[in-house]
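STRUCTURE REQUEST FORM
Protein name: Cytochrome c551 peroxidase
Source organism: Achromobacter agilis
Requested output: structure tokens
Priority: standard
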Amino acid sequence: MSKASALLAAGIALGCWSNLASAASQEPIQPVEPAVIKEPAKVELGKKLFFDPRLSRSGAISCNSCHNLGMGGSDNLKASIGHQWQQGSINSPTVLNSSLNIAQFWDGRAKDLREQAGGPIANPMEMASSHELAIQVLNSIPGYRAEFKQVFGQDRITIEEVTGALAAFEETLVTPNARFDQWLRGDKQALTLRELAGYELFKNSGCVACHNGVAVGGNSFQKMGLVMPYQTDNKAEGRAAVTGKDADRFNFKVPTLRNVALTYPYFHDGEAATLTQAVDVMGRLQLGRTFTPDENAQIVAFLKTLTGDQPAIQYPVLPPSEDDTPRPEPFVK
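Status: completed
Returned output:
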């Protein structure tokens, strides 16, 4: 048994469960709060757009293709598959709890969800459409025109309205009530001894320096490979691609660890296939520490307690295209 496990077991034997629970309010991680929906019609419109593949040139790729809400808001691929089966250049981060991020994309080039939402539509490697074509498609569909007018009060649809609706829906994709959150709120039975020992290791080893706050990450940019360089064939430069500063090279947005058991593979290049591998690499490269197999397993056990209630999504019925709706071009390069 590790030192952390022994201390924890001794504390429990002495009846210190209540002390652990009361101290939870001082922890570096805070619980996820349920979404508060203020504009339900806008959220419903955003949900339809999120699932509508007609925003892509092929008519086959939707936001949900790479951010599958049945798979932790990701696609479980090293890099997503885009138009014409092109391989993406970077691992697709989860959309769940993304509203808690300091910025969007690994390099933070989008300041918020609204700015992020327009990027994949026009990216030739992703949805391969254009904002103009996407708006032409939506404007040609009477059902969408009526719904946009109801939500925004205008006869014509614009890309600003599209991204605003998408962002409104994505802001609802939070995952409260993880077992770790239950423990933070005072449920003394929510975690096992092994999971609590893993959390102690997570804190005492320094993981919380980057993975903290409500999202357990997502609130800072950090260099990948602090203690020793990270070796990868991936060409992503990180924050330097946005700032142009060499000092920002290989600085990436720290990913959220919420629902991390669902969002494999890990890292910007997707090279860590399992949580065990990810914990090992992070320990060595970021902390200069080699975890024993038992320590690694304890941390993994804790990380699995961060899986919250997944969004209960009823697949929307999309309004049908009309005769003048631009047709999909899945085979045109």
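Reviewer notes: DSSP finds 14 helices and two strands in the chain. Strands lie at 221-223, 251-253.
Form closed.
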